C-alpha cells in the first residue's frame, strides 16, 4: 500500500528516527534521512536502508536553518518525486532550573524541537495536496501532555508540537492528509543507555536502580518503550486504516500520563 511513496524523516541517523526509516523502507517507501553524526556511520545506515530495495538519501540539513530545511524537502521532491510522509523527529534536551537556563539553550531547543517542524510542514503540505495524499507524524513526548521540573524549553517545545499538530490537522482535514503526534515516554536508545553508568556512579546506586527509580520513576510499567514499538505506531498511522485518525496525541508511555 505504501510502496513507491516517499518520506522525509528528521533526526533519523540513530534511535527512534532511524527505526522509522527502516520500518518505512521495509514497506517499500523511499526515504530521506537527516541528522548529525559520524559520516561513515551515517553512510553505513543509509546503504543498509537502500539494500531493502528502495532509494535512500541523506540530507545534512541543519534544523536551526530554515533555508536548509526547505532544501531538504526540495531534495525529496526532486529525487523522490515528492514528500508523501513527513516525520518530524529531530530533538535535543537540556536540563536546568529556569533561573539558570542559558538563553542559547532555550533558543536551540525551540528551534530544533519546534520551529523546524513548522518549516518542514510549510514546505511539505503543498506537495501532499498536489499528490492528494499525505501523512505528517510529529514525535512529541509525554512532555507534550505533562511537565517535569528543570526542562522548561523541552516541555514548552513539546507542548508547542501538540498545538502545531492539531492546527495543521484542521487545515488539511479535507485534503486526505492526516497529522498526528506520537508521545513516547522514556525510550531505550543508545543515548539513554550511555547515561546510565555515569548516573549510577554519581548517585552511588546500581544501574538497575537508576533505570527503575530514576529514569522510569514516572513510568508505571517500569519498562522502557522500544524504538520498534514507536515505529510500529508510525507505520500504522501511514496506512489507510488510520485515515480517520488526525489531530491526535497518541501516548506510548507505559502509563505515565494516566
From TrEMBL:
Pfam families: adh_short_C2. It is an enzyme of class 1 (oxidoreductase). Keywords: Oxidoreductase. GO terms for molecular function: 3-hydroxybutyrate dehydrogenase activity. Gene3D superfamilies: NAD(P)-binding Rossmann-like Domain. SUPFAM superfamilies: NAD(P)-binding Rossmann-fold domains. GO terms for biological process: monocarboxylic acid metabolic process. InterPro entries: 3-OHbutyrate_DH, NAD(P)-bd_dom_sf, Sc_DH/Rdtase_CS, SDR, SDR_fam. PROSITE patterns: ADH_SHORT. The keyword Lyase does not apply. The keyword Transmembrane helix does not apply. It comes from the Bacteria. Its EC number is 1.1.1.30. Belongs to the short-chain dehydrogenases/reductases (SDR) family. NCBIfam families: PHB_DH, PRK12429.1. This is 3-hydroxybutyrate dehydrogenase. It comes from Acuticoccus mangrovi.
Amino acid at each position: 500500500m505504501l510502496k513507491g511513496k516517499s518520506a522525509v524523516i528528521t533526526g533519523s541517523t540513530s534511535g527512534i528516527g532511524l527505526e522509522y526509516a527502516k520500518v518505512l523502507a521495509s514497506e517499500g517507501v523511499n526515504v530521506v534521512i537527516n541528522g548529525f553524526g559520524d559520516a561513515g556511520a551515517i553512510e553505513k545506515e543509509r546503504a543498509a536502508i537502500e539494500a531493502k530495495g528502495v532509494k535512500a538519501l541523506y540530507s545534512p540539513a541543519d534544523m536551526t536553518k530554515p533555508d536548509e530545511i526547505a532544501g531538504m524537502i526540495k531534495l525529496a521532491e526532486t529525487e523522490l518525486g515528492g514528500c508523501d510522509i513527513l516525520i518530524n523527529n529531530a530533538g535535543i534536551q537540556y536540563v536546568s532550573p529556569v533561573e539558570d537556563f542559558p538563553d542559547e539553550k532555550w533558543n536551540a531547543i525551540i528551534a530544533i524541537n519546534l520551529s523546524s517542524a513548522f518549516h518542514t510542514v510549510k514546505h511539505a503540505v503543498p506537495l501532499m495536496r498536489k499528490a492528494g495524499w499525505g501523512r505528517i507524524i510529529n514525535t512529541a513526548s509525554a512532555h507534550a501532555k505533562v511537565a517535569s521540573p528543570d526542562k522548561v524549553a523541552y516541555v514548552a517545545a513539546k507542548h508547542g508540537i501538540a498545538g502545531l499538530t492539531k492546527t495543521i490537522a484542521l487545515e488539511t482535514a479535507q485534503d486526505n492528509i492526516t497529522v498526528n503526534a506520537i508521545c513516547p515516554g522514556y525510550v531505550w536508545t543508545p543515548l539513554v543507555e550511555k547515561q546510565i553508568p555515569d548516573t549510577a556512579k554519581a548517585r552511588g546506586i546500581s544501574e538497575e536502580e537508576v533505570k527503575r527509580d530514576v529514569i522510569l520513576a514516572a513510568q508505571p510499567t517500569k519498562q522502557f518503550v522500544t524504538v520498534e514499538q514507536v515505529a510500529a505506531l508510525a507505520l500504522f498511522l501511514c496506512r489507510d486504516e488510520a485515515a480517520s485518525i488526525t489531530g491526535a496525541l497518541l501516548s506510548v508511555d507505559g502509563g505515565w500520563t494516566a
